[in-house]
TrEMBL record:
Organism, scientific name: Oceanobacillus piezotolerans
Gene for this chain: nagB
Annotated coiled-coil segments of the chain: none
Gene Ontology CC: cytoplasm
This protein's record includes keyword Metal-binding: no
GO biological process: carbohydrate metabolic process; glucosamine catabolic process; N-acetylglucosamine catabolic process; N-acetylneuraminate catabolic process
Name under which the protein is recorded: Glucosamine-6-phosphate deaminase
SUPFAM superfamilies: NagB/RpiA/CoA transferase-like
Domain Glucosamine/galactosamine-6-phosphate isomerase: 11-227
Catalytic residue list: 68, 137, 139, 144
EC number: 3.5.99.6
Keywords, alphabetical: Carbohydrate metabolism, Hydrolase
Assigned protein family: Belongs to the glucosamine/galactosamine-6-phosphate isomerase family. NagB subfamily.
Length: 242
């Protein structure tokens, strides 16, 4: 089941997503969140911090698991997703850093780290709400086109288009890691509920295929059609083709 909520623009998307997530955090006794990075959820995180400052939400009982991390970047590297999460959310709310897990992109044994991520999610009782963005090529997490739907958390090679897109955060394209650890498609699909945020015209084609196209490993996000509880909050530009 996929519910699509159409909003005017990026700000309205962030606002709606904030209400949606805060409602779950307040309702669930021990909320387990799956968190995402990228430009898309930044506005949502800003608003969650405001809500926390207004005492309308607390992260004391929250556990969180991040979708992905670049291979080779240390936690304190400003381009690592661990750094992003601390900078954009964790450092500004009452979440315990012991309760957050971002895959470790410099683990000595990366495959073992991937297994450990899935094990930790299981031990926490599974993810209640998984937040997702979407890549222009339809990727979710860092699961590029062609990734098997049965995949668990694994080390992945990034597509040239993804490296291009993400190079905007780095000094030069050569600095962009070519590999990442990403939760697998199966890991993502095991979440009880999924919230997908989509903003902007450059995502319109992928979103259209996700909503109206066939379910295919060539468009990783299309797998969401098979999930029982998905909410998509998308702005007018993102829905301009669909
Ligand atoms: C990145 C991330 C994804 C994200 C997507 C879109 O590469 N690994 O988790 O959803 O691409 O990013 P953005 O929100 O910046 O457009």
């Amino acid at each position: 089941m996929m519910e699509i909520i159409k909003v005017k623009d990026y700000d309205a998307m962030s606002e709606k997503a904030c209400e949606f997530l805060a409602e779950r955090i307040n309702r669930l006794e021990n909320p387990v969140l799956g968190l995402a990075t990228g430009s898309t959820p930044e506005g949502l995180y800003k608003r969650l911090i405001e809500k926390y400052n207004n005492k309308e939400v607390s992260f004391k009982q929250v556990k969180s698991f991040n979708l992905d991390e670049y291979v080779g970047l240390e936690k304190d590297d400003p381009n690592s997703y661990y750094f992003f999460m601390k900078d954009k959310l964790f450092d500004h709310v009452d979440i315990s850093l012991e309760n957050v897990r971002v895959p470790n992109g410099v683990a000595p044994d990366l495959n073992q780290e991937c297994e450990a991520h899935d094990e930790a999610i299981k031990a926490a009782g599974g993810i209640d709400v998984q937040l997702l963005g979407i890549g222009g090529n339809g990727h979710i997490g860092f699961n590029e086109p062609g990734t098997p739907f049965t995949s668990k958390t694994q080390v992945v090679d990034l597509e040239e288009s993804t490296i291009q897109a993400n190079s905007r955060f780095f000094n030069s394209i050569e600095e962009v890691p070519t590999q990442a650890i990403s939760m697998g498609i199966d890991t993502i699909m095991s979440s009880k509920e999924i919230l997908l945020l989509v903003s902007g015209e450059n995502k319109a084609d992928a979103l259209n295929k996700l909503i109206n196209g066939e379910v295919t490993e060539e468009l990783p996000a299309s797998v969401l059609q098979n999930h029982p509880n998905v909410t998509i909050i998308a702005d007018e530009a993102a829905l301009s083709v669909a």
